[in-house]
Amino acid sequence: MWERGSILRVWLPLLAGLYAIYATFVLGRGPHDATQKWGLALCLIGLSGVIVGRAALGRSFSVMAKATQLVTMGIYSRIRNPIYISSLILITGLILIVRRPVIALLLVLIIPMQILRARREAAALEAKFGDAYREYRKRTWF
Predict the structure, then answer these.
(1) Residue 51 — φ and ψ, nearest 5°?
(2) Which residues contact 40 (CB under 8 A, 6 or more apart)?
């Protein structure tokens, strides 16, 4: 659990993310109303999803679409792209905390990018794992 790889892959990003959310919420405009508290909750949910997804991928994680292993356990047993979904939840929460609607334009850019990236990954996985990936795809969301 505490090997060097998991510290760099999971624990340091988790701590950095928690600190960034804390700093954004606590040092941001206050007093905090219900909208900002919902934003905080979404940020924490989104960060958790990113970290859980990243941990489940282990060494299979890559920035570019590669098909090294078909990960179908943990959160990947329900969602094919939990990191993408979770990052959108995180950004939505951030928008609510900082109260800068212009940041929502990020979503206009990120959502199509995530869809294209998911399609590239799906093509790479289908090319390598064939029927196993197609079956996995039938029983999971996005």
Answers:
(1) -70, -45
(2) 21, 25, 32, 93, 97
In DSSP terms, 141 is beta-bridged to: 79
Distance CA 89, CA 44 (A): 9
Q: Where are the domains of the chain?
A: 4-138
CB atoms within 10 A of CB 29: 11
User: DSSP string covering 69-97, please?
Assistant: ----SGGGGTBS-HHHHHHHHHHHHHHHH
Please say whether the beta carbons of 43 and 21 come within 8 A.
yes
Question: By the 8 A CB rule, do 92 and 42 touch?
Answer: yes
pLDDT in tens, 46-75: 999 998 998 888 776 665 666 778 889 999
Query: Over 60: is that where the pLDDT of 118 sits?
Result: yes
Q: For residues 40 and 49, give the distance between their C-alpha atoms in angstroms, rounded to a whole number.
A: 14
